[in-house]
Amino acid sequence: MKNKNLTSFATHLDEQYGKRGTEKREQYEAGFEAFKLGAMLQELRKGQGLTQEQLAEKCGTTKNYISRIENDASDIRLSTLMRIIREGLGGKLRLCVDA
Question: Which domains, ranges and CATH numbers included, belong to the chain?
Answer without folding.
Answer: 10-88 (1.10.260.40)
